[in-house]
Specification:
Blueprint (H helix, E strand, L loop, with lengths): L20 E3 L13 E2 L19 E3 L3 E5 L3 H16 L3 H6 L6 E9 L2 E9 L8 E8 L10 H9 L2 H7 L1 E9 L6 E4 L1 H5 L3 H11 L10 H18 L5 E3 L2 E8 H27 L7 H12 L5 H6 L3 H17 L4 E4 L4 E4 H4 L19 H20 L2 H5 L2 E6 L4 E3 L8 H16 L9
Parallel strand pairs: 1-5
Antiparallel strand pairs: 2-3, 3-4, 4-6, 5-6, 7-8, 7-11, 8-9, 10-15, 11-14, 12-13
Helix pairs in contact: 7-15, 8-9, 8-13
């Protein structure tokens, strides 16, 4: 533990006698040591700026983030909110703890030769390989009861159309694009340009939805499960009014890519079953049935029955490949993945949800061999991800936290709900729920 220089700039965000405060030091030129770095996934708020000598959010290697206290009054208010959550036994407060980041007290660091106080919180994206993160500020009204007329007027102009239409606004996000793996970032300036239609398009972009890639049901359902719980909380809680508070939404694009592989494989297998049923029918089957079989074959997928029944050399190679894959993963006692150092029981590794015949690709003169090999590699990667991921990882790849509590006030009327927050989250849920409805069923 390092003792800090007692000569501090009183104009900064130093908070005296904050309980549970840890101390550390960063050199005056703001060069971070190995244990602390800039939070690369910060998508909103005040970023770091060397020229202006300001600091944004930081990250520690232990899965915690450091949020700087920019203004002393607001900082004390947010720290007090987290401290009350930790200490309270009120049923409402205990329920609220389920939706906010884990709080670890405060930390003070020496930055630019000055002492700065940070809130220490759990990092929502800890453990994610390709974190996609979006900050959504909830509420049509973002100014609190203590706001000056000037502050109120300024807030009403920010994200005006989005807040007026939906009761929330998107202040920033980052997304890993599929299948390229490239990351794109969109800041507050982008969010301020969004109209009603633009908000929907931004949500689609964030959720990796495109004309040729429909919504991933697993992602949408898990996201909604969090949002529904928070909405139900606000349909009952009457203790607080939340102004300018956000929802931080995150998911792992690597896991999304994996689920999309599984979903596509299910569709391909279903198409193969349909093709087989038509192939076994009368030789006088309708032309439409023949076309279905042809399309399924050209799609490049087959199951073991299809592979064994095809009388061509290519079909024989496919059948041999399926036999080899099944033999290699159907072990007598356990499945060892030497590349990942993972060993598990047979019952855990070879589930019915991921069958080896999904990895089969027929090769013909109509298929590009390089593309076929690349697709096979992706399928093997998906299989490896399925075998080596724990149940917790599979269920915990989508996360939502309530954040930013500098403008939370006790309610003056215990008989009323926080309709400002409630309207925003209800509209957000309605937009996300639209992605569950297939286009051909959308009335």
């Amino acid at each position: 533990m390092t003792t800090l220089d007692q000569q501090t700039d009183k104009t900064l965000c130093h908070l005296d006698k904050v309980p549970g405060t840890e101390f550390g030091e960063i050199s005056s030129d703001c060069g971070f040591h190995d244990a602390i770095s800039l939070l690369e996934t910060q998508v909103a708020g005040h970023p770091s700026n060397d020229k202006r000598r300001t600091i944004g959010m930081l990250r520690r290697p232990d899965g915690r983030v450091l949020k700087p206290v920019v203004k002393p009054l607001l900082g004390k208010r947010e720290i007090a909110f987290y401290e009350s959550l930790e200490e309270s036994e009120d049923p409402v407060m205990l329920q609220l703890k389920n939706y906010v980041p884990k709080y670890y007290g405060t930390t003070e660091l020496q930055i630019f030769g000055k002492r700065v106080t940070f809130l220490t919180l759990k990092d929502i994206i800890d453990g994610m390989a390709e974190p996609c993160v979006m900050d959504i500020k909830i509420g049509k009204r973002t100014w609190d009861p203590l706001a000056t007329p000037q502050k109120r007027a300024t807030e009403e102009l920010k994200y005006a159309e989005s807040k007026r239409t939906y009761g929330f606004c998107i202040t920033g996000f980052q997304v890993y694009c599929l299948p390229s793996g490239l990351i794109k970032k969109f800041g507050k300036h982008y969010g301020k340009t969004l109209d009603a239609k633009g908000v929907v398009e931004a949500l689609k972009m964030f959720l990796n939805i495109s004309p040729d890639r429909p919504p991933c049901r697993q992602l949408i359902v898990q996201l909604l499960s969090f949002l529904w719980k928070i909405m139900l909380f606000f349909r009952t809680q009457r203790l607080f009014r939340f102004y300018s508070s956000s929802l931080l939404v995150a998911y792992d694009a690597k896991r999304l890519r994996h689920y999309l592989h599984l979903n596509n494989a299910d569709k391909d297998r279903a198409a193969g079953h349909v093709a087989n049923s038509f192939a076994g029918a009368s030789n006088h089957a309708p032309a439409a049935a023949t076309n279905v079989f042809k399309e399924a074959s050209e799609d490049g997928t087959c199951n073991s029955a299809t592979a064994s029944s095809v009388g061509t050399a290519d079909g024989g190679h496919a059948a041999e490949r399926v036999h080899y894959i099944k033999r290699s993963i159907s072990l007598s006692s356990e499945c060892e993945l030497t590349g990942k150092g993972v060993a598990m029981n047979r019952s855990e590794s070879c589930s019915s949800d991921f069958r080896a015949d999904r990895l089969c690709r027929t090769h013909s003169y109509g298929n590009n061999f390089d593309d076929d090999v690349a697709q096979m590699k992706e399928d093997y990667d998906a299989l490896l991800s399925e075998l080596s991921s724990s149940s917790d990882e599979k269920l915990n790849w989508v996360r939502v936290n309530m954040i930013d509590f500098t403008h939370v006030f006790p309610t003056e009327d215990r008989n009323t709900l926080d309709v400002n927050y409630l309207e925003g989250i209800e509209n957000l849920i309605k937009l996300v729920e639209m992605f569950l409805v297939p286009k051909d069923k959308d009335a």
